[in-house]
Each structure stands twice: as structure tokens, then as C-alpha cells.
Amino acid sequence: MVHGFSNYSMKNLPNVSVIVPNFNHASYLKQRLETVLNQTYDSFEVIIMDDCSTDGSQELLVSYQDDPRVSHVLLKNENSGSPFGLWKEGIELAQGTYIWIAESDDWAEPNFLEKLVPMLESTDAVLAHCKSYNASAVRTVLDPWWDSFGTDFWNQDYLKEGTELLKFYGKYRCPVMNVSSALIRKESIDLSWFPIRFRYCGDWWFWMRLFLVGKVAFCAEPLNYIRVHKKSAIRNRKSSSLPRLRENVEVIKEIHMGLGQKLDYSEHYDWLIYHWVEEMFREGKYFNPSYHKTRLPLTFRSPFYKAYRKQMKKKLAKG
Predict the structure, then answer these.
(1) How many Cβ atoms are within 10 Å of 141's Cβ, its own excluded?
(2) How does strand 182-185 pair with strand 158-161?
């Protein structure tokens, strides 16, 4: 069941549909919504969706329903179990040419849309995205997600074929660090892509499907802020669970299939092996068969056990 509000009074169809999916982010919602509503680019609608929050979020969200730019306020009374289901529902309601999925705990510069919309309007790119800041309670720094490649590739704007970006970078790491940093051409999205079965890595799978469709534009100016807190996606990425790691492997396999490439190990997957082994020892499950029966590709097994033996030696040395 969904309790909702719809506002169809807008005279003209918006150019951008901003989807704000929320679950228990009441303390961050005002900043999120205000940085959407105060965009310098003004042809947009806002679709607010709440996934059965229990922290007072729904009361705050309802207070925005009279804003003429808010076309829908949908409040679920049963949790969907997957953020990707909310993405799909929001896109099905969207009237705009472009989609911005603005996660409820992030925020943006006021010129986010003003910068990214022209990158889609002047090209045939399927999406445009930008650099992001990681913002915690104590500091704000540029997101370092791609630093491991040792290149200045992301220091300038570009327009590239999505398949090429996947071949050189996106098959090793999720090619769009944060969905809030991206603007997507709606007609490029196939709703069958939405990976409801994924709990952790569905965004990587979704971007893979989109990158295989066409070109990708990038803005080197950081216009997006990823809030780092205890329950944030970026924090969870650093303390990966076994299901998350298994999902990573599944997505990596599917990307190689989509590119028609054989999956071989690369040093760019060292981050995955590191987290896998770290998780085993952090939980004290280094002898647990479930952590060894991982369906790792054959070429991944040697670096996995090399890292495993190294970590075991450290443990034994500590006594």
C-alpha cells in the first residue's frame, strides 16, 4: 500500500524529474530538498518517495506537498526491501526528459542542473555525471574512488563511449560513484534493468547496462556532496559484508559478458580481495567455509589466498 499525493497543476511538462527516495533520513531531508528546490535551473518537478520511514520523515515530507514543483509525495506503509525498487517507481511517474535521482542524505550545489543539463542537451549522451565531495561531520574532501588508477583522466570534462569507459575503468569499479551525481536521459532507461534482486551492488549493475547503450558525459567540477555517516552507502562500502562481496563478483562477471571479454584477474581488483579478506578476519570467520566457497573466478583464487595467508601471518604474529 502507498499513501500518496499528486500535483498535476503544472502548466508545462518539466525538463528534469528529480526523484528523492528516502528511508529514515529525517535529519538530512531539509537540506536535501532545499538544495533541489533552490536550483538555478528551474524546469523541474520533484517526486518525493518514502520507504516506510519510522523517524518522522513522512511528516516533514508532507509539508512540501503544496510546493507547485512537487508533483508527487508517495509514502509507503511497507518497506520495499530494496532502494532500486523506489528508483523504478519514481521513473515510471517521471514526466521529464531527464532523471536526477537525488538520494535523501546527499546534497548539491545550486548550479548542479544548470551545469549538467546542457551536457545532455548538446550531445547524444545517455547520462552526465560530475565529481563529488565526501562530507562527514568533521571534514569535506574530494571523493578518491578512482585514485587507484593513477591517472588525471577525471580532471577534465569529457564525452566518451560508455563501452570504452567500461573496458578501461568501469569493469573494475562502479563507474558512477554516487547516483546523486548523475543526470540520466530517461528514454535511455529500460525499466527491466532495475536490479531488485540486488541489495548492495545494483547501482553498479544499472550503470553497466546504461553505459552499454551509448555515450557518457563527465563534468570535472565537483557539484555533488555525499554525506558520510554511520548508515551511508559509502561507509557500508568500506565495511563490506559477505553478501555485498558476492554481489560484486556477480556484477563483475556480467560486465565482462556484456563486453564479450574473458574475465581475468587485474591488480585493479585488489580492493575487492582486500575487503574480502578483511571481512573474514574482522568477523573471526577465517575458517568459515562460506567465506571460501565464494564462486570466485579461477584467476581470482591465487591473489585471494595470497592475501589470506598474509593476513593469517599477521594474526599469528600478534598471538
Answers:
(1) 10
(2) unpaired
Which is it for the CA torsion 229, 304, 179, 81, positive or negative? negative
Classify residue 81 as left (phi > 0), alpha (psi -120 to 50) or beta.
left
Q: Kindly report, residue by residue over 169-227, the tens digit of the pLDDT.
A: 999 999 998 999 999 999 999 988 877 778 788 899 999 999 999 999 999 999 999 99
Q: Which domains, and CATH codes, for the chain?
A: 2-229 (3.90.550.10), 242-318 (no CATH)
Secondary structure, 3-state, the chain: CEEEEECCCCCCCCCEEEEEEECCCHHHHHHHHHHHHCCCCCCEEEEEEECCCCCCHHHHHHCCCCCCCEEEEEEECCCCCCHHHHHHHHHHHCCCCEEEECCCCCEECCCHHHHHHHHHHCCCCCEEEEEEEEECCCCEEECCCCHHHCCCHHHCCEEEEHHHHHHHHHCCCCCCCCHHHEEEEHHHCCHHHCCCCCCCCHHHHHHHHHHCCCEEEEEEEEEEEEECCCCCHHHHHHCCCHHHHHHHHHHHHHHHHHHCCCCCCCHHHHHHHHHHHHHHHHCCCCCCHHHHCCCCCHHHHHHHHHHHHHHHHHHHHHC
Tens digits of residue pLDDT in 270-290: 998 888 888 888 888 778 777
The total of other beta-carbon atoms located within 10 Å of residue 28's CB is 19
CA distances from 279 to 243, 251, 263 (A): 11, 19, 24
Contact 100/16 with Cβ under 8 angstroms?
Answer: yes
Kindly give the parts of the chain with pLDDT less than 70.
Answer: 1-12, 230-241, 291, 293-295, 319
Nearest-angstrom CA–CA distance, 109 and 54: 29
